[in-house]
Amino acid sequence: MSVKELLNRTKYVIRYPWNIFKKKAPLISYITGRLVTMLFLLFFLGFALFGLMELAPGDIVDQMMTQQLMSSMDGGKNSGSSINNSLGEKSFSEEQMTQLRQEFGLDKPFYIQYLKWLNRVLVHHDLGTSLISRAPVSFLLMSRIWNSVLLNLISLVFITLFSFILGVYFSSKAGTKLDIGVTFFALFFHAFPGLLLLILLQLGASVTGAFPVTAYPDFPFSQAPVKFTFSYLHHIFLPLFASFLGGVGGTLRMIRSTMLDQMGLPYIFALRARGISEKRVYLNHAFRNTLNPYITGSANLLASLFSGSLVLEIIFAYPGIGRLMYEAVLQQDINLVLANSMFTSALVLVGMVISDILLAFVDPRIRYGKE
């Protein structure tokens, strides 16, 4: 048997049961295929992240040496002429730096480091330890990730709710002065720089004192759950408001334009000719067809919220995963950077799979896996 025949037979053995499974359960087979694709994407993402960190100048050992030198200089300022002695005592030697790189595995090529990291995660279910704080990466992620997820989910709910309400309403008022004014402000805030908006809101909070300049209470939830809840809502109002203004503009305009497109289609004229009320035409028919583009774009909206929360968390000192990622990149903590990026990317990819599944339930014309 030739190599070509062997490859063809192998493909047949793999594809034949898959095709049978695909015909019997098209949606489940589609979900399975998307999950497998997601795993491949995460694999190549991690490989690219290790490569990019390798290209960055210096490494975490250099960062540690710099921190030692800075602390030595601070100590020297306090002790006068003892600065040179303290530098000599506290700075790393070449042998110590080489030993640290071997301990962290930084002396190996980046692809070897990545394969070792994958083996540790998949086999031992261990994300490793932070090279700077020496704390478990899983502990650092779990202490921050839910703060970011909660903040972004609240933003997504408010953006979705108000976008649909205002988009459907102003599509019925198309061409009026109110519609033109709202469309102008929606476009204005959608194009307004998010960083500048956050800074202006924080300055306003600092001047007026109406809201805190930080986005998280200064006491834990376990100390006073009810008080923490109200304090948390008070603290995150401005960040949520900035996220809402930046996200509602594009979504509102998309829903409004989709509604206007639907209202001009022949089936709408047919429904009106049959005497169906305008309310039913809007809500039961045209509105339902606006769900498809929103569901398709909701995963991108969630991804943009997570990427935008990086700046938000830094400016408002919010203890989220974006701020953790920023600190890890500055310190070149590869274990923390990789685990953080993979977790956030996995959330976005899962959101895309969920949006595709929702499309199949919302639109009966979509049947995955069928001709």
Describe this protein's structure.
Helix 7 (137-171) packs across helix 11 (237-263) and helix 8 crosses helix 11. By secondary structure, the protein is mostly helical. The protein is flat and about 85 Å long. Helices cover 79% and strands 0% of the residues.
| Whole-number mean pLDDT | 77
Q: Helical segment tally? A: 16
Low-pLDDT runs of 5+ residues are 79-90
Helix and strand pattern: HHHHHHHHHHHHHHHH
Shape: flat
Cα distance spanning the termini: 35 Å
Q: In percent, how much strand structure appears in the residues?
A: under 5%
| Rg from Cα | 27 Å
Count of extended strands: 0
Helix % is: over 70%
Q: Which structural class is indicated by helix and strand composition?
A: mainly alpha
Largest β-sheet summary: none
Name the features.
flat, mainly alpha, 371 residues
List the helices and strands and how they pair.
Blueprint: H1 3-24, H2 26-55, H3 60-79, H4 83-90, H5 94-104, H6 110-124, H7 137-171, H8 177-191, H9 194-208, H10 225-235, H11 237-263, H12 266-273, H13 278-289, H14 291-315, H15 321-331, H16 334-362
Helix pairs in contact: 1-2, 2-6, 2-16, 3-4, 7-11, 7-14, 7-16, 8-11, 9-11, 9-14, 11-13, 11-14, 14-15, 14-16, 15-16
